[in-house]
Write a structure and sequence with these properties.
By secondary structure, this protein is mostly beta strands. It is built from 1 helix and 3 strands, in the order E-H-E-E. Strand 2 and strand 3 (about 75-80) form a beta hairpin.
Length: about 80
Amino acid sequence: MAMCPICNNFQTINVRCPECGRAVQDQGKVSDFFDDYSPDMETDELKLEDGYPTDFKDSQCPHVFYCDSCHQEVLFFIGEWE
């Protein structure tokens, strides 16, 4: 089972807003926003239903980042560790 280095606090990432170029804040993985219980569910199972057809196969964790300056949301796929 692959593991996201961001979700597990092994690594940080600096992502810039494509609109204004300022740093964006990680809001967590996309599946955490599905419903109240999704943060407690098995990540790999949620990846099969998250709307991104290759994130499970390619061992990627989709994260949402938010720009406080221009209020843009940015989706970024984090490479998971095997």
